[in-house]
Design a protein that fits this description.
By secondary structure, the protein is an all-beta fold. It has strands spanning 27-29, 70-72, 77-83, 86-95, 105-112, 115-121, 129-135, 144-148, 157-162, 171-182, 191-195, 202-204, 208-216, 219-220, 225-230, 234-237, 243-249, 252-259, 263-266, 270-274, 284-294, 300-302, 306-315, 320-327, 330-340, 346-352, 360-369, 376-378, 383-386, 389-394, 400-402, 406-414, 420-427, 430-440, 446-452, 460-468, 475-477, 482-485. It is 0% helix and 51% strand.
Length: 486
């Protein structure tokens, strides 16, 4: 070969096939020995960098200057040439090789309202962008395009939400991956974009809605639970104005059912068929309601006392209601089988709680129409019923009472322990004398009995026990000993 002769060798890089692994793009700084953004040394003797058209590069603020930056070299190849007799005479040059990415797979689309959620599998390590296409026909005659950036690379699932979809139109979607290689930061320098094949086509079926209002006396009723069943299941709650809607529904048969504690609606439910269009005007009205307002959660009522049960009502409830006491959610007793419902939307019943009513903190009251058992309500939260109590206050420990003197035995009470009490004298825990079996209970929660201490009563330490004459379970004893002295 003549040293003064030009030799031209044509070489073409080839992408290997059937690799057992995936190959990413080579994205690196132009000069890997220098930091990102550093000015690159201009080739001699020009004194600057020029684009392929022969014009000075001005993209980096200084004419003829290129700053070090990242470039996608694709599957980068390197030419290395040198003279055999002169090892120092050689040349190395990078070659950018654009390899199409692998096509995405598993494209799926779900339309709810005006939001189409799309997912697909990213199969490539060298894509730089996805192009998602949408059309209203399978031939993609008119295409709407969305550009999506890769997220986590090969093997990951990519999610994208199309917020421009119409809820009642079926759409066709497909996607392909692109690999853009070359220097995209320096104008006029060559780049190349290669695309994968298209993915499968995904169809998002048109969806529709069912809507309506719930009213009570002509006014919207909020907080009603609306349950959808049939071709799809869903639950929503009416807004403050009584409106509700179920969106993203496909063609099919459905049933809408309203529920709210204490309320009965007309109709009780509505069958709805969607056949290619929205279904509106699925309205409900309140046929009747009962709402127990008293007792409230946390209230304490004493056995033997009279308490007022209260409720509000509306619609076709009837003139009488049944009132029941529940304990732990189980019927404990029927308070009234036919109490007057009330007037002007308010009702009440005065209940004398039996003095022997079991104590507990898990009681509720249920009020039910006697003409329509579906109109019923139970008080919100548990209330407490305490039994009647007696508490000895004197003598209660430490007193010295002399024989033959008149002393006041005192007590407090709650509820209705009965009209009369029994008073006993105890020594060492045993009854040694019945002071009286007919002491008057007292009034306003307290009572007393004047006891003339016998002159012959033995001196020593004693206690007083007071017990209801009608309910032996209602009893109390002095907290500590008092003394009988000469």
């Amino acid at each position: 070969m003549n040293p003064l002769q030009d030799t031209i060798i044509a070489m073409r890089p080839v992408a290997p096939t059937n690799l057992p692994f995936k190959v990413p793009n080579s994205v690196r700084l132009i000069d890997v020995t220098r930091p990102d953004g550093a000015p690159l040394s201009a080739p001699s003797p020009t004194g600057g960098f020029f684009d392929p058209n022969g014009d000075p590069v001005v993209a980096f603020g200084v004419e003829g200057q290129i700053n070090n930056h990242y470039v996608n070299f694709g599957w980068e190849y390197v030419y290395h040439c040198h003279l055999l007799a002169h090892e120092e005479m050689d040349m190395m040059h990078s070659v950018i090789f654009a390899v199409p990415p692998e096509a995405p797979t598993g494209l799926a689309a779900t339309l709810r309202g005006n939001r189409a959620t799309l997912t697909w599998l990213d199969n490539s390590m060298n894509e730089t962008q996805f192009t998602l296409q949408r059309a209203t026909d399978s031939n993609f005659t008119t295409v709407t395009t969305f550009l999506v950036n890769p997220v986590n690379g090969a093997g990951s699932t990519v999610n994208y939400i199309d917020t421009t979809a119409a809820p009642n139109i079926s759409y066709y979607y497909r996607i392909y991956a692109s690999n853009l290689v070359g220097d995209t930061d320096t104008p006029a320098f060559p780049t190349m974009n290669v695309d994968s094949a298209f993915s499968n086509t995904a169809v998002s079926a048109a969806t529709f809605l069912i809507s309506g209002t719930v009213t009570s006396g002509g006014t919207g009723l909020g907080g009603v639970t609306m349950t959808l069943s049939g071709a799809a299941n869903a639950i929503t709650t009416t807004a403050a104005d009584g409106s509700y809607s179920f969106a993203g529904l496909s063609n099919g048969n459905y049933t809408v059912t309203p529920t709210l504690a204490g309320y009965v609606f007309s109709p009780s439910n509505r069958p709805v068929t969607i056949a290619g269009a929205n279904v509106t005007g699925q309205n409900f009205t309140v046929a009747g309601y009962l709402l127990v307002t008293v007792p409230k959660e946390g209230e304490i009522w004493g056995a033997g006392s009279t308490q007022t049960i209260r409720w509000t009502f509306g619609g076709n409830v009837g003139s009488l209601v049944r009132i029941e006491l529940l304990k732990g959610g189980v019927l404990n007793r029927t308070i009234s089988t036919g109490a007057f419902v009330g007037t002007g939307g308010n009702g009440s019943f005065n209940w004398l709680i039996p003095s022997n009513q079991t104590q507990g903190n898990d009681y509720t009251v249920r009020v039910t129409s006697t003409t329509n058992a579906a109109i019923t309500d139970t008080s919100n939260g548990n209330f407490t019923i305490t039994g009647p109590t007696i508490t000895v206050t004197a003598p209660n420990g430490g007193e010295n009472w002399r024989r033959s003197t008149l002393q006041a035995i005192r007590w407090n009470y709650t509820g209705n322990p009965g009209s009369f009490l029994k008073i006993y004298l105890l020594q060492g825990g045993n009854i040694v004398r019945t002071i009286t079996e007919t002491a008057f209970l007292g009034s306003n929660g307290s009572g007393s009995y004047m006891w003339l201490i016998p002159s012959n009563l033995a001196t020593g330490n004693y206690r007083i026990r007071i017990t209801s004459a009608t309910n032996a379970a209602v009893t109390d004893t002095s907290d500590a000993d008092f003394s009988i002295v000469p």
